[in-house]
Amino acid sequence: MSRGPNDQSASVSDSGPLIAPAVPEEDRHPSAGTPEHCEGRALEFSPSPGTAVALASAELVAKATPETDDDEPQNALTKKFTAAEWSALREFRSMLPATFTGAFPDRPDASSAPYILWGVTIDPTKPKDPRVSVILMKFLRARNLNLDEAKAMFISTLRWRQSFDVEGAIKEQYPEDVFGGLGKIFGKDKQGHPVVYNLYGAAKDTGAFNDIQRFLRWRVAFMERSIALLDFETVDRAIQIHDYEGVGLFDRTENSKRAASEATSIFQGHYPELLARKFFVNVPSFMTWIFWLFKPLISSATLGKMAVVGSGPRTIGAALLPIIDEHELPKRYGGSAEGF
User: Fold this and answer.
1) Whether pLDDT at 1 is above 60
2) Does the first or last residue of the chain, that is N or C, have fewer Cβ atoms within 10 Å of its Cβ?
3) Residue 291 lies in a domain
4) Helix axes 147-164, 130-142, angle to 10 degrees
């Protein structure tokens, strides 16, 4: 198992492959339900009715309120967790030794050895860290706080990162003439989210999809680069802009469709809850129907993050400038920055 400081994390869950839009890969997956979590302990005496009421009230308050700052290190993001999320998080943290053992069965020290994910050290024996809490909450939210499903997703992600060799993919050198124009990270929005641009039209005539596995390794490395800009203290998501300028009706090939499918599977399964907003810009009219075709299959929460915008700087700027300052937005999208 490779663990180390380079195991940082670029479809920020939801960056999506550089292909025509299919059903957008999103980071929330409905589950059968969220198990209830019981706290407190049985009383060893028979209280009076008044005492019983007071104890019950105190227990309800304890359930609805996270531990004090002395007990629970906090940051700006953890302070937004709900009572139900805190309850699930505490139980999820207690499962970390068994989770790491399940992920790395060949490691005798798996239950106690720290693991670095997206630049954050997760110590299964000392998990009370606000940045760790933010990352674990992503897996919980992606599975609607279902502990068993969140654990399975986390184990799957840890195993995949090892088998895919994410750390190696980050260090690889990719031909600039093939991959250099496919994705850009430029600027931030007004809330500090980094802005990631996926340039679909740039994939034409570059041979980017000739080797699907090489494309996937570049795509994962790009994803990890964008995640490296998140501090998990105040910012834990990114803005995505998917630009379809130059995409033609017959540009999709069997290789590009297969690359899209495999990339979607990776980002759905291993990069949860990393999307703040997603904008589709310069979408050709012949492709717009695809979005409307799949719209009934997309959850309202996901739709709330997405917007399909027209073409041209003026139209795109009208949609983006309310959330991205003009000097942070390239001129081609209605801003004043030189960009890329």
Assistant:
1) no
2) C
3) yes
4) 110
- Using DSSP bridges, classify how beta strands 306-308 and 275-281 pair: parallel, antiparallel or unpaired: parallel
How many of the other CB atoms lie within 10 Å of CB of 253?
Answer: 12
Q: What is the pLDDT of residues 19-55, one digit of tens each?
A: 444 433 344 444 433 333 333 333 333 444 444 444 4
Specify if 250 maps to a domain. yes
Alpha helices in the chain (DSSP H): 49-64, 83-94, 96-103, 130-142, 147-164, 166-171, 176-179, 212-227, 254-270, 285-294, 300-303, 313-320
Position 321 in a domain: no
Mean pLDDT of the chain: 83
Strand order in the sheet with 194-199: 183-188, 194-199, 238-243, 275-281, 306-308
Q: What is the DSSP letter of 331?
A: G
Phi/psi for 260 (5° steps) reads -60, -45
Residue 236 in this model has a pLDDT that exceeds 80: yes
Spell out the residues 6+ positions from residue 336 whose beta carbon is closer than 8 angstroms to its own: 326, 327, 329
DSSP class of residue 225 equals: H
313 lies in a domain? no
| Interatomic CA distance for residues 278 and 291, integer angstroms | 13
Which residues have a Cβ under 8 Å from the Cβ of 210 and sit 6 or more positions away?
A: 255
pLDDT tens digit sequence for 48-107: 444 444 444 444 434 444 444 458 999 999 999 999 999 999 999 999 999 999 999 999
Closest-CA residue to 191 (of 29, 292, 324, 306): 324
Q: Give the CATH number for residue 56.
A: 3.40.525.10
Tokens linked to 111: 């239950």
Q: Which is nearest to 244 in space by CA: 294, 285, 303? A: 285
Residue 182 burial by Cβ neighbours in a 10 Å radius (0-12, 13-18, 19+) = buried
Which domain, by its residues, includes 163?
1-308
